[in-house]
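Ticket reopened. Same input as before:
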Amino acid sequence: MQKFAPPSGDLNPNSHTEAEVLAVLRGDFGFRRFGFRYELLTSANVYVMDLDNVTGCTVEMNWLADIKRTARFRLRENGEIDFLSDRIRPFIRTWLPPYGPNDYVEHPQGVFLLASPDRNSDEQNRVTRDVMAYDPLLVLADDKVLTRYTIAAGAKYTDTISTLLGSMPKNVAPSTRTLPAAMEWEPGTSKLKIINELFSAINYEALSFDENGTAIGVAYRSPVTRTEEFTYGAGVAGLVVPNVDQELDLTNIPNAWSLVVSDPDKPALVATYTNSDPASPTSTVRRQRTIVDFRQEEDAADLATLQAKVARLAFEASQVYEALDFTTALMPVHSGNDVYRVVYPSLAVNTKYTEQTWSLELRAGATMKHRARRVVTV
Amino acid sequence: MPFTDSDPTEATLPIRGVWLHDPDDPEGTLRQFRYGANQRGDSFDPMQSGTYYVGREDPVFDFGEGSGFSVDVTIDVPHGPDYVEVLRELRAYAASKKNLFFRDNRARAVYGTMSNFKTSDQSWGSTVSFTFTKAYRAVETVVI
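Engineering reply: fixed in the latest deploy. New output:
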């Protein structure tokens, strides 16, 4: 999540505080005032000008997608944009008391490369373009190695990733870990795939770009250990629109597992595990029926190993995601993979969630859609 | 073409009725319509959007930077030597499909567009009504 109050400067000219911005965004005064600004950038993210021909914009974030942040712009044709190389960075401006000309904060919503600019002309002969746009992950997804790409044993993971990112603005947390053995990739492999495999090897999050267009590489932290950054409450300071969908699909969660090792040269090994815990809602006791996950052709050195495997399988199967779809007021501070608390009494929800997707329209009065999830042990 | 600003002068404009002109050619298009006083009105819309949130009894309103201002105008065009000419000029303004400048004797002075143009026949001539909606114009500001 972005800070409510950006550092003093262009994005916060009158140095408003976190508490001041939070009070306004939370609607403490019964109203909020927004403005929207669109910067045209070069391919090197250098500012060119403010655009005055953007007539609509929506931004979406999907933390589980390869290209995480996307946008859709509607532009009036004016010939000022090079759709093949220019970029657009939208900002949401929140006006603050005492509402002077510099009493605002601005939150960027991402840096976007432009694609598929459909043109259309209406009955008044106005030419507009509907432009799909993607964050800079697209550059790395499209850029593929032309020859077999090899990284020697002993190379530092994060140094290698920084090299692959080239001149892109980046903020990769350094790691001292080195490759235990050389790694290589086929010609035609995207740099994004290589980077994400390297990140995965040191238990980092997949590569993402923040709202300023900076590549981010950070170690994975379980949501359990992360502090919630905001609360979407349901009290007098609540910003949640009625109608929240909670999704916890337990229909096909097995409660019995059986693993079989069949080798013609050895006696068959069979390991089973049954969830008969009365505290578990999916157990054989609670369901009053058995749903079996049966797997053959497993590989295990001995029965003890197979028994351990079936126990692990049962544990992993009992970790399911609960998803929450809800709508809130426009909140310009979201980033990616945010952790926050949601309180919604009618569904008895009062717990911490991790944001999976969000989408917002840059329009005063528009609402913001969220899908958040958490792991539930059943 | 080089130009020089004149010295500021303070004066009260003795405006009567409605004045319309094309801001791209003020001298060539300026026209006064004298009749129809007390038949105008305006409306302002701050364009807020209210949303009810869980736990709040009253909505929270979001405002954008846009707002709407429009003037409902009715002009009387009595029979006379210029009757046809005045109707023709008013229709021409409406058909020009461009921003015009509107000013009247109630301190309204706005750039905008004409819409909902209607004429109604009367025993003494015609009434012409239209809506004048304020529009964006970057190159000039108006001081009332």
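Helices of chain B lie at 26-29, 83-95. Chain B has a mean pLDDT of 90. Please confirm and we'll close it.
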